[in-house]
Design a protein that fits this description.
9-stranded mixed β-sheet, two-stranded antiparallel sheet, 16% helix, 176 residues, alpha+beta, single chain, 36% strand, Fumarylacetoacetate hydrolase, domain 2, 11 strands
Amino acid sequence: MKIIGFIYHDGSNEIVLKGDSCLLNGRKPLFMPEWTKELGVTECLILRVSRLGKEIGLKFADRYYDAVAPGADFIAMDIAREAQQSGKPWTKALAFDYSLAIGEWMNNDEMSATPLLNDELIISPEEAIVEASKLMTLRQGDLIYIQRRQVPRPVHNEEIIRVEIDGEEKLYCKIK
């Protein structure tokens, strides 16, 4: 399984990859990594790829994902700044264990009403499918996450990150 991310950085979109150990499911807490002093979070929308595809056209892209979930993408902001200043990759800042909290899946019928699908996403779900499939073959079960157009905000110990949709809690993550 691949996790492909579309993130917002310095006014432009970047594509990043995360390993499956980055997923944080099932209301489990995120334990702040000891090696960072400044953990940040950005809300995101996560797509679940439902079929095999390569170089998918925009008019067919909506056929390649069958569910979405709210997500929280965590970043070690101090490590990212250091890496950026030195010109080094910032994988350590983005792709650490449990750095992507994933909420409850919603099928395509439910997702049309979700506030997660709005102009705040840096790229539409369909455009994300197209762009990701240009780089690599998408397979059933792969995940694509799309950040909102916002700078990561700091998170603190004992903070709770929640996303509610229509009065139902779809994402819960406590920071410890």
